[in-house]
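Annex B. Sample input.
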Amino acid sequence: MHARVERTPLRTRIREAGGFYQWFNTTLISLAGPAQVGEGKGTPCHRCGAHKVDHALVDGELRCP
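Annex B, continued. Sample output.
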């Protein structure tokens, strides 16, 4: 049959990683990948395509530049 692979106990792996937070963070990043960081300007306007931060707020409405 299959040979059983001996794994290090979870408690030992957490201690070797430097604590629970470090172990969890390392495990999460290895599964999900690094954070996806964008340019930070937000979503573009559906009418003109410019970023919404470039618009003017007039009487509670966003006006295209």
